[in-house]
Amino acid sequence: MRLFRSLAPVTVAAVVVLCLPYDALPYGRAARPAAEQPFGAECRTTVHGSEVVAWCHNPYVDTDRVALHIECARWWDLDTDSAPVAAGPATTVRLTGRCWKEVEAVWISHDKG
After folding, report:
1. How far, in Å, CA of 41 to CA of 111, rounded?
2. Which residues contact 81 (CB under 8 A, 6 or more apart)?
């Protein structure tokens, strides 16, 4: 009698799992989507007056094409976008730019190149 009581929960659990529809079962390892590789250089920007300097370090395997974008504060001052620079694996690149007067905003764009 004791043996039946100890096997009853295990038997019920096995029956429930076997009776589940196929879509309710979790996927095996082969059916899972591949994990995305980490990407993107880490960039630090500094603004000194009207000059901007950005340092971007890429710690990952894929090459990151980084570009510096500067928005100037004055309406007559031209905003600038640098040409993309390839930051290869474990490399650091320096990007520079400037406005005639004050700098309003600075950002870096990333592209898998």
Report:
1. 10
2. 67, 68, 69, 70
For residue 46, report the phi and psi dihedrals to the nearest 5 degrees.
-130, 140
Taking the whole predicted model, whether its pTM rises above 0.70 is answered as no
Asked if residues 54 and 82 have their Cβ atoms less than 8 Å apart, the reply is no
DSSP 30: G
Amino acid code (one letter) for 75: W
pLDDT tens sequence across 35-86: 778 899 999 999 999 999 999 999 999 999 999 999 999 999 999 999 999 9
Angle at 60 between CA 93 and CA 43, to 5 degrees: 40
Token digits for 43? 């960039």
88 Cβ contact list (under 8 Å, min separation 6): 58, 63
Instruction: Match 């406005």 to its residue by tokens.
Output: 99
Supply 1's token pair. 């009698």
